[in-house]
Each structure stands twice: as structure tokens, then as C-alpha cells.
Amino acid sequence: MLALGVLLGDGIGPEIVDASTRVAEKALAGVAVEVRWRELPFGLEAIGDFGSPLPEPTLSELDELPGWILGPHDNAGYPEQFRGTLSPGGAIRKRYNLFANIRPARTLSASVRALCPDLDVVIVRENTEGFYADRNMYDGAGEFMPTPDIALAVAVFTRTASERIAHQAFQLAAARRKSVTIAHKTNVLTKTTGLFLDVCLTVSESYPDVEVRGEHIDALAARLVSHPRDFDVIVAENMFGDILSDLAGQLSGSLGMAPSINASHTHAMAQAAHGSAPDIAGRDIANPVAMILSAAMLLRWLAGQEDGTPALGVAADNIEDAVRRVLDAGVGTADIGGSASTSAFTEHVLAALD
Ligand code: IPM
Ligand code: MG
């Protein structure tokens, strides 16, 4: 019996997370693995019930689990006192030291109207520090206003965090097209992104088969659009990686197609790269692909752990294959030019798993 956490989140979260657990459960049944979902309070609803978007009972349950699925959340929509602080998703990443945010962007099917029809990149995003000041403090806030007209933010770059994310990127690239691009902005941010670049280049020496180049983030963004096939793995600090992964997801067809996991060496969390899309919440039109594929990534990660069950990797392959076949058949949600609802698309994927 496999136990996994489920945090539905806000906006379209409940709809797409439900799609992902149904698909994962069926794929797991296909490889004779039974799963027990532990649904835990999280997000706006948890504020109402527990006075916190990430309440203590949720944390103590997560402590016992190797992995979970996190729906998108909308902290901008929370009551005032929960806004200026660490986002609940950021708090989970920090508490479990989920330092690697792995975000593939790949055009899955010719039937998807993609801006870059042959994109296949993975953004490896450092997930614990960098320019995102809300995650940078042990105590106190990394963003502050000495006067109403001045706002300051603290960036943190450490050798340790840069090293471990670089190893993730090079290991991944070694198993792919053997190329890593390091995103930086050393012409301006010489110390912070300079340390990140230097550390990544030093780590690259341990991977002689993988080609490496550093590139300024602005030029990199332009070239990702003009020459998408030049890129295999891109390693980036937190904010650059956040922005680039939305860009890459959209280039691959839709932000609604871009999955991710947040991982440490011992825990992983499936989380779509996109946000909670409150404007379309509850209308059964959101694209569930990112969330479904994030769940598949979680299963593959679990399979790859030292004591992992290989069957989980087979279930992950089967999910990806089923999603691709449904897309190839021309079924898709409105964001990719189709007319299927969230639930109808999910039913097609479930049928494709038969
Ligand atoms: C992401 C998001 C989050 C982040 C938000 C929801 C707090 O943009 O993971 O892509 O800033 O890290
Ligand atoms: Mg983002």
C-alpha cells in the first residue's frame, strides 16, 4: 500500500488535482499497486477551518509521507494578514528542503498548437533561496519598507545550494542530450549570480561528457524562443527558473501542460508549474495535463528512490503514454485549441489507460 498526501489548493486546484489522483490511481491499479490518498487541509479553505493556509495537522501528516500532490494556490487572494508572508507552497518547499524544482517543457503532440513545436527542455530551478526574498529568512521578512516610498529585498545565494542544484542539472543532462545552460546575469549581478555561475561551472568538471555554457538570462530567454532546440537542461536560480519555466511551458503549447516536481533526496511534491487561475475556477475547463503529468513525475521519482518500487515507474510511463495518445487523437482543453472539458479530457485519459 502506497500512502500519498493530497493538498487540493485554490482556484482550479481541486478540479485538476482530482483529475490527477483518478488517473494515478488507475495507472497504479494497472501495475497492482494500491494507493491510499491522505487529503490534507491547505489553502484558503484551511484558513477558514484552521486559521492558517498550512495548518499544523497538515504538516504533522506530511512529516510521515514520502510524497504528495500539491494543487496550485492563490496567496494573493488570501486575507490581508496572510499575504505579505511566506507563501504556503514556499513554506512547504522550505520545511522539507525540496531544493530541486524540476520543470520539463516538451511539446507532447503534433495536435497541440505550440509556439515551438519541437521544444524539449528541462528547467532545473533552485528552490530554496535566490531572489525570492520570502524564502530567504530564518526569521523576519526578506522584503521590507524603511519608508512608504522605499522597498528593499534581500537575495541569498549560497555555495551549498548552488552546488546541489548544479549536480541535479548535470545528472539529468547526462541521461538526456548532455547539455546544460547556466542562467545568470553576471554583467549586472556579479556577486550573486556570479557565485551561482562559478559554482555550476566547477560542478560541471565532474561531468566531462556534458557540455556546458553560461548565458545571460535575458539573451537566454530570447534564444529559447528563436532556437528552442539549442537547449536541453537549463539550471537557474529561483526567480529566473520560475519565469523561464512559465515561458517554456507556454512555448510547448500551454502553461496548462507544464508539470513539475519539487524534490529533496528524501521527499517529493508534485506541483503543476502554473498558478491557480481563479478566473476559470469551478468551470470544468482547466487543462489537467500539467497536474496529471506532475503526479506521473512523482511516481517516477518514488520509483527511483533507493528502496523504490519499479512498478511506479511503469505506472508513470503509462500515464504519459495515455496523455499523449489522447492528445494525438485531437482531444484537448480550450487552452490548446480543443473543446474538451476538464472532466471529459480526464475520462479520455482514464479510458486510454485500459
Ligand atoms: C511557482 C509559483 C510560486 C513561486 C508561487 C505560487 C508562490 O510561481 O512555483 O511557480 O513563487 O515559487
Ligand atoms: Mg511560477
TrEMBL record:
Keyword line: Manganese, Oxidoreductase
Biological process, per Gene Ontology: isocitrate metabolic process; tricarboxylic acid cycle
Molecular function terms, GO-annotated: isocitrate dehydrogenase (NAD+) activity; magnesium ion binding; NAD binding
Isopropylmalate dehydrogenase-like domain residues: 3-349
Keyword Manganese: yes
Pfam families on file: Iso_dh
Keyword Nucleotide-binding (UniProt): no
InterPro entries: IsoCit/isopropylmalate_DH_CS (IPR019818), IsoPropMal-DH-like_dom (IPR024084)
Family to which this protein belongs: Belongs to the isocitrate and isopropylmalate dehydrogenases family.
Name the UniProt record assigns to this protein: 3-isopropylmalate dehydrogenase
Lineage, uppermost ranks: Bacteria, Bacillati, Actinomycetota, Actinomycetes, Mycobacteriales
